[in-house]
Design a protein that fits this description.
Elements (H helix, E strand, L loop, with lengths): L1 E6 L2 E3 L5 E9 L3 E10 L6 E7 L4 E3 L7 E6 L4 E6 L8 E10 L5 E5 L3 E5 L2
Parallel strand pairs: 2-11
Antiparallel strand pairs: 1-3, 3-8, 4-5, 4-9, 5-6, 7-8, 9-10, 9-11
């Protein structure tokens, strides 16, 4: 089993910043991609940003230029730096990671989610 634990959510005013962290632990052989998704009330979960083990990144158009994603492979941790936050960024943010537990078993795990609220 692979567990993901997120931290860093909270309440912030429009224009503010937050940094989310997600640490993976458990039976990990290697991690391919790590990323962040979000789900606002009444909406489907959507991709925010992903990063591969080699550092290739992908962002939703709505966050390009405002959010950055990074990872520490030695710590199996991914970060999401969110700047210039807007009310429409309000959502539960979920961490995702996929990789291998050993040579024969793969994993695709989700965190429990962390609330980000942007409001004045």
């Amino acid at each position: 089993q692979v567990q993901l634990v997120e931290s860093g959510g909270g309440l912030v005013q429009p224009g503010g910043s937050l940094r989310l962290s997600c640490a993976a632990s458990g039976s990990i052989f290697d991690i391919n991609a790590m990323g962040w998704y979000r789900q606002a009330p009444g909406k489907q979960r959507e991709l925010v940003a992903t990063i591969t083990s080699g550092g290739n990144t992908n962002f939703a158009d709505s966050v390009k230029g405002r959010f950055t994603i990074s990872r520490d492979n030695a710590k199996n941790t991914v970060y999401l730096q969110m700047n210039s936050l807007q009310p429409e960024d309000t959502a539960v943010y979920y961490c995702n990671a996929n990789g291998r537990m050993d040579k024969f078993r793969s994993f695709d795990s989700w965190g429990q989610g962390t609330q980000v609220t942007v409001s004045s």
